[in-house]
Amino acid sequence: MEEEIFRHMKVDFNKLIDYGFKKENNLYVYSQNIMNNTFKVIIKINTKGIPSGKVFDLVTDEEYTNFRIENISGSYVGQVRKEFKSILQDIKNKCFFKKDFLNEQSNRISQKIEQIYKVVPEFEWEKYPGYAIFRNSMSQKWFGIIMNIAKEKIEEKAKEEVEIINLKVDPNKISKLLDKKGFYKAYHMNKKHWITIILNDTISDKGIIKLVDESYFLTTK
Predict the structure, then answer these.
(1) What is the spatial distance between Cα 56 and Cα 39, in angstroms, rounded to a whole number?
(2) Distances (CA, A) of 139 to 115, 165, 188
């Protein structure tokens, strides 16, 4: 639930304190009783801004987990689930702000593109909310696209989700780039003219922006 609700969100730690969180070592902790003091919800947010929550039965003083099991229904467990989600949603609305992409490098690159070219990401597909294109303002052609995909689509036997950017490059450079870690054959683009770069800090921001400059120039023609 936490991952679903806080996806594409970034915390404002100052607002956590105003909301009622208390700093305990490396965690921000918030608690609230629900359902006429029958249960206590405890939400913890670490220094990376990642939330996690637990519910405790105040009668037995034990953790209550049934609300996380989807195939368990009923008005009682449904009410716990509803109130837990409601607390998370309220914290999200009051203490978090939206970020365009999941990875920090993706957001840094997007911000740099906006600073240099005055171009903002365009989210064109409802089915793929994490996909964004960058359009050359002079030619209206795409010069970049950021996507979140399963890594196995670009690297065999890799299961985790990653974000990538596709950029247009000089075809003569592609083979040399593919010999370097972090570069892949273009995903869903013409492999003779485009290349895929993984956005997990394998390649420096400076190195990626240099290729963004080239892609912008190539799509200006």
Answers:
(1) 6
(2) 19, 20, 21
Cα Rg, the chain, nearest whole Å: 22
Residue-wise pLDDT tens digits, 128-171? 888 999 999 999 999 999 999 999 999 888 788 899 999 999 99
**Length of the chain counted residue by residue:** 221
For residues 184-207, b (16+ Cβ closer than 10 Å) or e, as one string? Answer: bebbebeeeebbbbbbbeebeeee
Q: Specify which residues 162 forms β-bridges with.
A: 149
- Tell me the DSSP string of 106-160: HHHHHHHHHHHH----B---SS-TT-EEEE-TTT--EEEEEEEEEGGGTSTT--S
Q: How far is CA 221 from CA 44, 141, 196, in A?
A: 51, 10, 21
pTM of the predicted protein model: 0.67
Question: How is residue 48 written in tokens?
Answer: 């990376």
In eight-state DSSP terms, residue 74 is S
Are 171 and 192 in contact by the 8 Å Cβ rule? The answer is yes
Taken in order of first residue, the domains within the chain and their CATH numbers are 2-98 (3.30.1820), 104-220 (3.90.1150.30)
